């Protein structure tokens, strides 16, 4: 590569940053930063291509890990924290038992699907209110019991 090879790295960095804006995934930005670092190192010391590729690979790993750590420490609040928690979204809903709750376990219809439920023993067809989730099952209580305690 010629002396101006740092421009290639900076162009790659700009292209990856633009791609991050078009297809947000919070990943390409770290690779773009690695390309920019490689471009600046190439500008400063003009290493051969093999060394540039090693610098890029190392910088990509380092920036990605640093970015991941930054996001784990600086959690970004969501406007919809239950977006990917389908069971959590059901808390407060009323469901009908499709299998009686016996020994604390049964099944209930939720929309067009059925879910495992846990709660006090109740007969088939009983209306229950979802009060929480536990190990992928809905925790339910009888609707009448909730009305009298509220």
UniProtKB/TrEMBL annotation:
It holds the Pfam family NfeD. Signal peptide: none annotated. Residues 88-142 form the NfeD-like C-terminal domain. It comes from Sphingomonas tabacisoli. This is NfeD family protein. It comes from the Bacteria. Keywords: Membrane, Transmembrane, Transmembrane helix. InterPro entries: Membrane_assoc_protease, NfeD-like_C. The chain crosses the membrane at residues 6-23, 51-71.
